[in-house]
Amino acid sequence: MKTILILGAGTAGTAMAHKLRRRLTRDWEIAVVDPSTRHVYQPGLLFLPFGDETEARIVRERESTLGRGITWHQAEVKRIDTERRIVELSEGEPLPYDFLVIASGTVIRPDLIDGMSDGGWGKSVFDFYTLEGARALRAALANFEGGRLVVNVVEMPIKCPVAPLELTFLADAYLAKRGIRDKTELVYVTPLDGAFTKPLASKTLGYLLEDKGVQVETEFMTGEVDAERNVIRSYDEREIPYDLLVTVPPHTGSSFLEDSELGDELGFVPTDPHTLAVKDIERVFCIGDATDLPSSKAGSVAHFQVDLLVRNIERAIEDKPLEPTFDGHSNCFVETGYGKAMLIDFNYETEPLPGQFPIPGIGPLPLLKEARRNHWAKLAFRWVYWNALLPARPIPISPTMSLAGKQLSAAAEAGGP
Ligand SMILES: Cc1cc2nc3c(=O)[nH]c(=O)nc-3n(C[C@H](O)[C@H](O)[C@H](O)COP(=O)(O)OP(=O)(O)OC[C@H]3O[C@@H](n4cnc5c(N)ncnc54)[C@H](O)[C@@H]3O)c2cc1C
Q: How far is the C-alpha of 161 from the C-alpha of 159, rounded, in Å?
């Protein structure tokens, strides 16, 4: 029996395992390695702090997300030996592989910023990128009676780069509903020079922040959290005071990648941007947030990569050359508060543009524009995730980006690509 071993059974690893199981014969063992017994639908973490989502709906037992025909090794990967083609684990015998897929995502690292995980952590300093963080933030927000609420992105790359903006928009609506918006200064602090990485979307999202009376502090490289004085300090000595700090800490790859000499300086895996093969290493591929690619670290990207990589693995099995098919396609709803959301669709070459999705001229979802329809689609996405995306059932969205339905003239007018 030959083995395809998948390291990490999150969004990318689980979908990959299901897709391979369907496509390959039973001569192939499909195995995943993951120490955690639960699978979290991470987009739901955005709504949890505001009481608009429940843990029961966004957390499932890992076992229930992996079907029959997929082997689960409940252990932590410690090291990959690419010469001997084995993976060493925290417990049990090393696992041999014929092909390896790295899908170990990111690790949230508050410990990398001076003072962040000290005295204030869980009292006045919170994250919402982990289940524990989102749960604690919910209690803190419920007790918040006004003051300075600061949302702080420490550095890029982070997963779902729009999530901190969405949290800010939702906080604005939440505080208004509780009648304390006028007692609160809402501040968005980012290392970028605008609201987002891509020019047109950054402009549109920037207007929205302005509209909602959010103060924006750009190019702020957070160096320290002083939890005694309740201020964050940048490397260029700027200080921003807070009463409640919601931070997105630095992200790195999983530590076994550094121990296997496979990660870059942040522990992300150097990956071919189009074939998804790990650079210079045979029979090893990488998908999802673990790659060093400039595509968004997002579940949608992981899903598109799975669709395309499965074909390349089949080609590798048949000893055929890999196809350079992945174009960096990303697709993301941006919740903007008051029951509305925007939708953005882009790839390596084309920034998010106005238009309609998925059917040109019809939609029904407008691109780069607030709409109730987008909000309802975002909420429906949880069902799609558990029932189609994770078990890798077909969905009618192309893994590569289409220009149909997009207003290319908008980019030209804005001076973009
Ligand atoms: C608040 C929030 C909102 C988001 N909203 C959206 C959204 O609206 N749309 C969207 O597309 N994306 C969104 N995302 C991003 C999306 O959830 C991730 O990009 C996606 O889950 C990435 O999939 P992955 O498989 O690469 O990583 P993950 O799903 O994080 O899985 C990684 C897995 O690897 C395992 N692992 C790590 N280290 C080891 C080890 N040493 N050994 C074995 N296993 C290991 C982990 O236990 C985990 O199960 C959001 C994320 C957050 C935090």
A: 6
